[in-house]
């Protein structure tokens, strides 16, 4: 497991072979935000950090295994959604 600060600190495990934004949101019930990253990772959180820096959408380029028409972040890039 890496140790870098995360936009959303709670990682839902195990990683999901059917990950997609809605699946991740359903795993993050009770949290204000959910996010998909690196294809199969799902993160949750209650607030966005003050250091958050938005990146171009093009940097999130990994197709979701649960729905290849959707994007599940990228390498060290998270697609964040409000729940």
Question: Care to describe what's here?
Answer:
- The protein is mainly beta.
- The chain has one domain (10-82).
- The protein is built from one helix and four strands.
- The protein has one helix at 21-27, and strands at 10-12, 33-37, 41-45, 78-82.
- A four-stranded antiparallel sheet has the order 1-3-2-4, covered by helices on one side.
- A hairpin with a 3-residue loop joins β2 and β3.
- It is globular, with a radius of gyration of 11 Å.
Please specify the SSE layout and strand pairing.
Layout: E1 10-12, H1 21-27, E2 33-37, E3 41-45, E4 78-82
Antiparallel strand pairs: 1-3, 2-3, 2-4
User: Uncertain regions: pLDDT < 50 for 5+ in a row?
Assistant: none
Biggest sheet architecture: 4 strands, antiparallel
Dominant shape: globular
Overall number of strands? 4
Please report which band the strand proportion falls in: under 5%, 5-15%, 15-25%, 25-35%, 35-45% or over 45%.
15-25%
Average residue pLDDT: 92
> Measured on Cα atoms, how large is the radius of gyration?
11 Å
**What is the spatial order of strands in the main beta sheet?**
1-3-2-4
Distance between the termini: 26 Å
Number of domains: 1
Order of helices and strands: EHEEE
SS summary, helix count: 1
Which secondary-structure class do the elements indicate?
mainly beta
Helix-residue proportion = under 10%
């Amino acid at each position: 497991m890496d140790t870098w600060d995360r936009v959303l600190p709670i990682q839902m495990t195990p990683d999901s072979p059917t990950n997609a934004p809605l699946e991740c949101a359903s795993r993050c019930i009770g949290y204000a935000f959910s996010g998909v990253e690196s294809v199969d990772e799902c993160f949750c959180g209650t607030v966005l950090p003050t250091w958050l820096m938005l990146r171009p959408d093009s940097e999130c380029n990994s197709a979701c295994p649960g729905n290849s028409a959707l994007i599940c972040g990228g390498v060290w890039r998270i697609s964040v959604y409000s729940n």
